């Protein structure tokens, strides 16, 4: 009897240790970019053996590189090197618009670069606005490597806003963020005191914990306790409480007009989760849901409605 009791204890302790090792590796892999190799496919695209590999070793995320530029759409642009915290330098592309129209400061999503913003910037330009497409620290042509999924990226947003105010002092500033970029924008307002004239965000999670839960569900794995352990070990590694990384809470600090765009087929962030951000802002926010759109730049899926919605919002600036 004692033997089986000891075996049970060892089994339970071994399982606890194994689960924590998995969570530690997952957290490390999600916030650390590697040089070379193929990026791990979306959870829905993984086979059983691939999922097992991801569970054990975590995802493989190569350092994001820029592909296309505004030149692909015959848009003249200039490159700007923007100083940020701790000696970092952020790389940005500026596309000039009409003199009487706002400047859109654009921030990309997780594990990609500013080149993913080009098609969206093209529509902003067609609406007369200028655009500044920014590589976060660790991505594209900016210095460094790695990500904090919108936490320290908020410092980058603040640095870019300060730079834009000096470089284009006569322009009204609208912050645009896709996914993680939107989370960084909202955190910059709440934690860094950034005060833009307007905000546009797409596909933004209400809390990082919910995002972690959704990821494990997409892999067919129990979200509890894996999501909680993922955030715990991420917090230890990055020295920030990821349980407090909640854009729905940051949103309460936003005082300017805000447009929240979301696809109703987004498997990463549910419409209800995005709606909580709008609820936090109340009358200051307009929440627009796009039918049939997954977690992707909405302009690529429904360009006509996206342009109409954004154009109406930008008229006030």
Description:
This protein folds into two domains: 1-62 and 208-243, no CATH class; 70-207 and 245-314, 3-Layer(aba) Sandwich (Rossmann fold). It has eleven helices and eight strands. It has helices spanning 2-31, 48-57, 118-126, 153-167, 180-192, 208-218, 226-238, 247-250, 271-281, 298-301, 303-314, and strands spanning 78-83, 89-95, 103-107, 130-134, 173-178, 198-202, 258-263, 285-290. The protein has an eight-stranded mixed β-sheet with strand order 1-2-4-3-5-6-7-8, sandwiched between helices.
**Radius of gyration of CA atoms, rounded to a whole number:** 20 Å
What is the strand tally? 8
How much is the average pLDDT?
A: 91
Question: Could you give the order of the helices and strands?
Answer: HHEEEHEHEHEHHHEHEHH
The main sheet orders its strands as 1-2-4-3-5-6-7-8
Shape: globular
CATH fold-level label of the largest domain: Rossmann fold
CATH top level of the largest domain is Alpha Beta
CATH architecture of the largest domain: 3-Layer(aba) Sandwich
What is the percentage of strand-forming residues? 5-15%
Number of domains: 2
Count the DSSP helices. 11
State the distance separating the first and last CA atoms.
76 Å
Stretches where pLDDT is under 50 for at least 5 consecutive residues are: none
Structural class, from secondary structure content?
A: alpha/beta
Main sheet characteristics:
8 strands, mixed
What portion of residues is helical?
A: 40-55%
């Amino acid at each position: 009897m004692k033997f089986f009791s000891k075996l049970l204890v060892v089994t339970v302790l071994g399982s606890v240790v194994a689960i924590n090792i998995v969570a530690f590796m997952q957290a490390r892999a999600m916030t650390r970019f590697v040089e070379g190799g193929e990026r791990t496919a979306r959870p829905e695209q993984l086979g059983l053996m691939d999922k097992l590999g991801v569970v054990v070793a975590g995802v493989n995320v190569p350092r994001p590189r820029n592909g296309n530029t505004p030149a692909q759409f015959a848009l003249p642009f200039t490159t700007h090197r923007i100083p940020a915290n701790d000696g970092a330098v952020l790389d940005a592309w500026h596309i000039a618009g009409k003199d009487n129209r706002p400047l859109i400061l654009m921030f990309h999503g997780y594990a990609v670069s500013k080149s993913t913003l080009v098609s969206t910037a093209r529509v902003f330009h067609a609406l007369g606005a200028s655009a500044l497409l920014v590589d976060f620290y660790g991505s594209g042509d900016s210095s460094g490597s790695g990500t904090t999924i919108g936490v320290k990226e908020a410092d980058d947003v603040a640095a870019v806003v300060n730079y834009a105010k000096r470089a284009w002092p006569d322009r009204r500033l609208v912050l645009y963020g896709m996914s993680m970029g939107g989370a960084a924008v909202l955190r910059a307002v709440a934690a860094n005191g950034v005060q833009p004239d307007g905000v546009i965000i797409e596909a933004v999670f209400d809390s990082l914990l919910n995002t972690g839960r959704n990821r494990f569900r997409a892999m067919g794995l129990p979200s509890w306790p894996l999501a909680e352990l993922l955030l715990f070990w991420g917090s230890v590694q990055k020295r920030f409480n990821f349980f407090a990384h909640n854009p729905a809470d940051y949103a309460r600090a936003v005082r300017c007009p805000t447009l929240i765009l979301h696809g109703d087929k987004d498997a990463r962030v549910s419409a209800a989760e995005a709606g909580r951000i709008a609820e936090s802002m109340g009358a200051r926010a307009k929440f627009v849901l796009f039918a049939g759109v997954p977690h992707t730049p909405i302009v690529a899926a429904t360009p006509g409605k996206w342009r109409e919605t954004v154009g109406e919002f930008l008229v006030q600036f």
